[in-house]
Amino acid sequence: MDSKELLKWLSYPIDSKNILRKRKTIKKNLLSRNFSYKVKIAILGGSTTSEIKNILELFLLKNDIKPYFYESKYGQYYEEALFENKNLDEFKPDIIYIHSTHLNISNHVEINCTASEVDCAIEREVDKYSSIWRALDRFNCNIIQNNFDYPVDRNLGNLDGYDIHGKVHFINRLNLELSDCARKNNNIFIHDINYLASQIGLTNWFDRSLWYQAKYAVSMDSIPKLAFNLSKLINAIIGNSKKCLVLDLDNTCWGGVIGDDGICGIDIGVDTTTANVYTDFQKYAKNLKDRGIILCVCSKNDLKNAKEGFEHPDSVLTLSDFSSFKANWRPKYENILSIANEVNIGIDSMVFVDDNPVEREIVMDKVPSISVPNVGSDVINFIDHIDKGGYFELPNLSSDDIDRSVYYQDNKQRLEQQAVFKSYDNFLLSLDMESEIKTFSNLYIDRITQLTNKTNQFNLTTKRYNASEMDSVYHSDTHIKIYGRLKDKFGDNGLVSVIIGNIVDSACHVDVWLMSCRVLQRKMELAMLDELINHCKKRKVLELFGYYYKSSKNEMVSSMYMGFGFELVKRDGLDTVWRLNISSYEKKNKLIEVLNG
Amino acid sequence: MDREYMFNSVQEIFRDIFDDKELIVTNGTNSDEIEDWDSLNHINLVSAIEKEFNIRFALGELLSLKDVGTMIDLMLEKFKNK
Predict the structure, then answer these.
(1) Cβ contacts of residue A358 below 8 Å, gap of 6+?
(2) CA angle A182, A183, A189 (to 5 degrees)
(3) What CATH number is given to the structural domain containing B22?
(4) What is this model's ipTM?
(5) Could you tell me if B11 lies within 8 Å of chain A, comparing CB atoms?
(6) CA-based, 20 to 30 A from A169: which of A99, A434, A444, B73?
(7) Does domain A244-389 have CATH number 3.40.50.1000?
(8) Over the stretch B37-56, which tens digit does the pLDDT of each residue have?
């Protein structure tokens, strides 16, 4: 079967019927690829999970993730979490998914309960889950927890959501309390099946017959939708979500053709029906930008005309919202490659939206790693394709995400400056770079953990840390752990580089060396190396060992240690180990002022 | 819909679910003859049939099915009464 067709079934709007029926064919087809990620997922179910696991596997494979599964015995989510469990211990999960639903609620409200008894039942139910999470702490891993769906029947009718004795009321409060409790732990992620069930419709979400026959708490038809939703959350957790939205202009950002119709002729604003639709699409894109997604333009237009479109008084997006703006007559795939270069992200982190099916097809064909949702040609459907496609799912909102798109814009200014300098070092000097390179502090631990999970390119070992693993490094005496912040005349890049070294006897082994792609080519790594050596000397370390583990994305640093003058001591396939004698080291950074006062 | 057409469609469903393009299903085929035909795959099979023909089996009906032949007889009946 054509693998393009199979992939289409797994993209929004997903084809549940074919996915369920042809699951094995799809799996075989997907398994023939190479995978960037390997993830061990333990599913602890409050109901049957067999087909959920099977279909989740397909979506993960499609997203470049090879999953390995552990499945609890039927309905044993509570017992397997709380009590000794050798199999799960041996499995060492990266992610635990707790598939519980309203059918697993064990504290019920009787019709004669008092208000405080209702409070108490909710508290007991939330306690059940927080005790599960506490018990699972022993695995140091991420936990995905379903919230609660509504039951299909409601004894009290409309009163059910309003009166304190109603099940709907109970679930509404329970979900809020569960979220409050989950937010206190940064390794717990709520999988919102309550919203998912609303989206699908409760009547289709739950199948009584299937429940009694096979104890599936979700209808067969909904299982692929649940698995799809879950796969997006897993993407976000492991840092595999998309980062950049590339937009066409004519009939995408506004109605009409700016080159023909002019600024007065395009459809945007609130005056006509279609103008409203384009305005709302721009608002959606703007909201994405405000929470850290990079926006870019890729359009066949004269640059002057294209820019004029955003000077329209009703345009929600303005020129300053875009980190890269390509309007010319070159093929779009060429422009996409130069956008990737300019904002410094991988093509596989980009989503391209264009109303023209031919343009979409060519881009898909020439740069297959970019995501091109099949948005159709009617702007009214664009938001659904982007939103329900789940490309930009995020695990949490860090203040850094909110500032990020600003940095990428600064980067563009830097590139423009570069052109007028004699040498690259000259250019770098003109940036007046200042750096702070220090031992980890509590203030930055979240950001540091986040960086270890989403940095792919400049990352020597691609070693991921969850919050509790990072906590143990933070408190360890045998680790050198330094972060680097970088400022320049265009702005503050924030915390951009991390090194974690493990001291064994008189040698330091570099477990983590990474740098955010927003400061590549700034020679920041030299300043980091200087500081690392300083720390080594203070700790009487004599030798430094560097490790390079090849991934699909970190080719750019494959010879970093060689460039630093390390000697190669071991080669294992594409992985390499390097050594440096510290006593003969000379300071390398000459361009960045390091202020550690 | 005649019995032969329905039979062929059911065979296609069996081939997809058990991932065996050459699988031949007869009236007498039952769960003893197909290795992967366990209770979970049985549910997948029934769900796919229900979806394909837009019919639903009642709970008791599924328990009494002893082979593919009786299943198809039941399906034809449901189809007639639709």
Answers:
(1) none
(2) 60
(3) 1.10.1200.10
(4) 0.92
(5) no
(6) A99
(7) yes
(8) 888 898 999 999 999 999 99
